[in-house]
Amino acid sequence: MGLTGIQIFKLLPKTNCGECGVPTCLAFAMNLAAGKAELDKCPYVSEEAKEKLASESAPPIRPLTIGSGEYAVKVGGETVLFRHEKTFVNPPGLAVMVSTNEDAASVAGKIERFKKAQYDRVGLKLRAEMFAIKDVGGNADAFCALAKKVTDEVGAAMIFISDSVDVLTAAADKFKDKKPLLYAATAANAEALGNLAKAAECPLAVKGDGSMESLIALTEKLSAMGVKDMVLDTGTRELKKCFEEQVVIRRAALKDRMRALGFPTIVMANEMGDGLMEEALVAATFIAKYGAVIVMSDLQPHVLFPLLLERLNIYTDPQRPMTAEQGIYPINNPDENSPVLVTCNFSLTYFIVSGEIEGSRVPSWLLIQDTEGLSVMTAWAAGKFSGESVGTFINKSGIKDKIKHKNVIIPGYAAGISGELEEELGAGWTVSVGPREASQIPKFLKSFKA
After folding, report:
1. Last residue of one domain, picked from the residues 284, 314, 344
2. Structural domain of residue 431, as residue ranges?
3. Of 314, 344, 367, which residue is a domain's last?
4. Greatest CA span in the chain, whole angstroms?
5. Residues in the chain with pLDDT < 70?
6. CB 425 within 8 A of CB 357
7. What is the pLDDT at residue 35?
8. What is the pLDDT of residue 1?
């Protein structure tokens, strides 16, 4: 049984220096107990305490980073089986496969689609992050040339896939600063790739032969060699069995604290689906449970976008609503005479209201106030969408510098704040009450006169 936060706290230096990323040693101890932090984040912990806490403080699923820069993918670090228990932490990385025997036009097309398939949603950029580069034929020069093309044109995180230790050695030596995932250590080459991963300081994929026993034997061997950052592939390519194995790995790591399986996993969806649509179904399955890296043969926009939305929804904290960023949103190229509407920052409200305004074709300013993700009615009832709070927000938002008129439109459900809001905004301002239902916004705007 793991140590409690208080037991861990007694072994910490109690300096409250904040260098670990949290303000107090007690908070850090609680994070250690929950598996949300690593002991080496504390620069002042004693060697004696390190020895006592080493096994207890390590997260049940080791967090690690693949790649560098803006496309770096952090995986692992999960602490629950079900997102409603707390939350899932690190979204799985989505990768597209390119190989050394693939024609240049095909590779160029995948790179172009990768760069274009980026979507803005609720202030977040949704996109794939990774390229899986596969060696066919054992030509290290061709492999490194393909990796360089991906690095130069995209900068994505990379997975290096080869059966040849020599090819992986050449690529790891040339691109080790990019922190690629080396795929894959097997019973036949575990020692060589283990030494390579340590020397290059790159994460290492570990591939079993389809049995959990083979995977455990490999991770135990590599751990004994000093390899820390591993990603697991059971070797199974049948959907039902692979799904079962993902659940077994997660349960063993979280419930039984089985260190040999306490690593993130990789799913080769490109080897499990017959065609891109089947690959998408496989990918969707393991975005939910419990793939950390998912490789596909291509990333067509109509396939990728639903997967990105699924990932966003599943890896959004269920205890904290999705929100839009507070601020001014110009819609349909508004000018100084365009109407001004204000609403809350609950993401669903933002998307519906902004969509209706856009559909009306009426140039408008939409002000989004931070209501902690609450809807208009709930925020009004909680006092977070009051005349005072809305007025303060409008006064500080900068909208007064963008318009000549003095009129603001509030949601129909918040009609009760109109008087207080007029007082807060000052002399000359008029508050108009808009419709209760967003579907009525286009009709309202077309007949509205500030």
Report:
1. 314
2. 327-447
3. 314
4. 80
5. 1-2, 35, 54-58, 122-123, 450
6. no
7. 66
8. 40
